[in-house]
Amino acid sequence: MWSNPDSAALQQILRSTRTVAVVGASSNPARPSYGVYDYLARRSHYELFAVNPTITAVGAAAAYPRLADLPVVPDMVDVFRRAEELPAVLADTLALDPRPKYLWLQQGLWDEDLARAAEAAGLQVVMDRCLKVDYAQLIGS
C-alpha cells in the first residue's frame, strides 16, 4: 500500500520548493483552489503559476493555459482537478524538461497507480493533502 511522506519529509519538500504550478487554479474566490493560491501568494516563499485554460488571471497574476506554456519548469505541480483528469495532468507533468520534483494532489485526490507511475518517473508524490494547510502547519507564515 502506498503512503504519503512523513512530516519530516513533507517539511523538506515544502522548504526546498521554490516554484509551484497550481493546475486548476481558479479566479473565483469561492473555490478552494483560489484560497490556496491566494494564501500561498501572500504567505509563502513560492513563486506561483496559475494553470487553467478557462481563465486569464488569478488576481493580478497571469494564468497559463497549460503546464507547457509556463515560463519556467516548476519544482512542484499542485493539482486541483477531478480524479479522472489526473492521468492527463501526470502526462503533461512528465512531458516537461526537466521534470518537476514534486506532484502534490490536493485533498480528496488519491490514486495509488498514478502515484507509483509518477514515482517511477522520478517525482516525489503527496496525495490527499492541502498544500496551504501543510505549509501553515509545517513552515508557518
Automatic annotation (TrEMBL):
InterPro entries assigned to the protein according to its UniProt record, in alphabetical order: CoA-bd, NAD(P)-bd_dom_sf
The CoA-binding domain, residue ranges: 13-109
Tree of life domain: Bacteria
One Pfam family it belongs to: CoA_binding_2
Signal sequence, start to end: none
Protein name per UniProt: CoA-binding domain-containing protein
Gene source species: Mycolicibacterium anyangense
